Amino acid sequence: MSTPADSVPVITWRKATRSEPTANCVQVAAVGSGAARRIGVRDSKFPSGPDLWFTPDVWAAFVDQTRGQAGAQIPDSIGSGGVITRRIPAEQVPTDFRRDDKLFEPGRQAITLRGTAGPGGPVLYFTEAEWDAFVAGVTAGEFDDLVADEPGRGR
Length: 155
Prior knowledge:
Layout: E1 14-15, E2 26-31, E3 38-43, E4 51-54, H1 56-68, E5 73-74, E6 83-89, E7 109-115, E8 123-127, H2 128-139
Helix pairs in contact: 1-2
């Protein structure tokens, strides 16, 4: 059975304004409303995936924690999965994430982002510049509206 094209949700991904216009970045989006609302995160270098999706409560906690420190770990306190970020040596980034123009320079750090909902789930890998631009956007409140059913209204 086919699904009408108008019933497929349109996902509008956006990045922090501090991201370079032509550079790769952390992208975020929101879909659904009410209890079905989810906030997604992806790497613009890999638009076909993987994506990580979180509830508005987990996203809000992650954003609040990210404002307070460079790395954030939000536990799975509400049963819907948390968010973990870590800094690792760039040399530890898997080969699959080093393709195209994604550069992880030896001697630098990479930032990982993953959910805690299940073991072996997807991990996103970002350069320091990508992550710093995202954190600057978080700190400026650029993504606070994603928790609201109507983006632009705040939380």
